[in-house]
Each structure stands twice: as C-alpha cells, then as structure tokens.
Specification:
- The complex is a heterodimer.
- Chain A is α+β, with helices and mostly antiparallel strands.
- Chain A is built from three helices and nine strands, in the order E-H-E-E-E-H-E-E-E-H-E-E.
- The longest helix of chain A is centred in the middle third of the chain and has 18 residues.
- In chain A, 32% of the residues are buried.
- Chain B is of the alpha+beta class.
- Chain B has two helices and five strands; from the N terminus they run E-H-E-H-E-E-E.
- In chain B, strands 2-1-5-3-4 form a five-stranded mixed beta sheet, with no helix packed on it.
- Chain B is globular.
- Chain B starts with a strand and ends in a 6-residue tail after the last strand.
- Classes of the chains: A alpha+beta, B alpha+beta.
- The interface between A and B is medium-sized, with 35 and 23 residues.
C-alpha cells in the first residue's frame, strides 16, 4: 500500500498495518525534515507531487520489493504540503520472517522512492530565501 | 494540434500556471519543451528532464498526438 498524503504521517497506525503473527522482524524508516542543508539554515519544507503518477510509481516500487525480498508486507507513505523541522516526510515499513529481508526491503524502497517518485521539495531558509532542491543541473535563469 | 500541459514545482512557478491548453506544431515532447522554454525561460537542462504522457513515463522523442496530456518532470527530490 502506497499513499501520498497531505495529512501528518500516523506512524503507529501504519506500523500496525504491517502486522503479521509470522513476522519476526519489522523494520521502519522515517525520513524527517532537518534544520540545515548544504550549509544553509532551513526553516520549513514544501513538498509537491504529480500525484497520479507518484501513486502509480510508488506502488510499482513496493511491488518490486515484494518480488525481490521475502516479505509479509511492505508499505510506504510520502507527505505533501508545508512541513516543519522534525516532521516526518516519508515513512517506509517492511515485515518479514527475519531482519535481513526487512532491512533490505526498507533500504530498497526508500532509495527507489528518492530516485523515481515525481515529488519535489522547496526549501525555505531562515534568511528568507527559498529554492527547489536537486536542481543543481538547472542552469541559471536567462532573464 | 492541441495538448494539455501540466506544470509542477519550478515549472509551475516559471510558467505562472498549473495547467494550460497549448496549440503547437511540435511533434515530440522535446520539441514542445524547446518551444515552451522559449516562452517561459525554463531553466532545467534537457539532459536531466523526464516526461510523462497521459500520466505514464514516456520518452522525450515519443510522438505527440492530439489531446495528449504532457508533464515535464524536473529532477525529483522526494524523501
């Protein structure tokens, strides 16, 4: 189950949804908003998504993890909108018989989400400046 | 030919709209991007750009057809 959500991430409910009596391992990754990036002091983050494609791509990534690893379940959620320092931006959880598969699946899902999900974040800095992250390849505006 | 273009993130800010109907002679997303870049001064290099046609990933050289919905995808930054 992959969800793009404007509401705060409810980690407890998500973790419960992984439950399986046969699961000896539940691994959860939570990505949070931190207060600095590349030497600049960050005040808040704003996430935007191409929701229709992000939901499909997110589910594809979870389906791939299910095929690659022996799991009972794997879920993930990505936040949208304005987030403050410390807020969870992304949650990934995997349940398996043993910890190895659960750790690997969690790692796979977060790495692929970061690489493939059509989601963008804008950093708002304490000095009032703001810019879209990961656009280091974008050349300067010509006007 | 008419296509719908949806804009996200820096493209939405640079175009000043989230979506528009574009009448164009462009036969591929690449040619359409060139045309829109001239109009709006987009600052994303073509080699890091992806595209979705009708809500699925596609190629910048895929033929465009009447009624397509086009989304140019700048470098992503989820997580």
């Amino acid at each position: 189950m992959f969800i793009i959500s404007s509401a705060p991430i409810d980690a407890e409910t998500l973790q419960q949804s992984l439950g399986n009596p046969g699961a000896g391992a539940i691994v959860v990754f939570e990505g949070c908003v931190r207060n600095q990036n590349e030497g600049k002091s960050v005040e808040a983050l704003e996430y935007e998504a191409f929701i229709e494609l992000a939901e499909k791509e997110g589910q594809r990534i979870l389906d791939e993890a299910q095929l690659k690893y022996e799991l009972f379940s794997v879920h993930a959620t990505h936040r949208l909108g304005q987030l403050a320092i410390g807020d969870a931006a992304v949650w990934v959880g995997a349940a398996a018989v043993h910890r190895g598969e659960a750790f690997s699946a969690c790692r796979y899902v977060i790495d692929e989400l970061k690489e493939r999900l059509p989601v963008w974040k804008k950093e708002h800095y304490t000095d009032g400046d703001a810019h879209w992250v990961n656009c280091q390849h974008c050349h300067s505006a010509v006007f | 030919m008419n296509v719908t273009v949806q804009y996200f993130a820096m493209f939405r800010e640079q175009a000043g709209v989230a979506q528009e109907l574009v009448t164009t002679d462009a036969t591929s997303p690449q040619l359409l991007y060139n045309e829109l870049s001239d109009r709006y001064g987009f600052t994303v290099d073509g080699d890091v750009l992806k595209v979705a046609l009708n809500s699925e990933f596609s190629s910048m050289n895929h033929p465009l057809k009447e009624g397509d919905t086009v989304v140019f995808i700048p470098p992503v930054a989820g997580g």
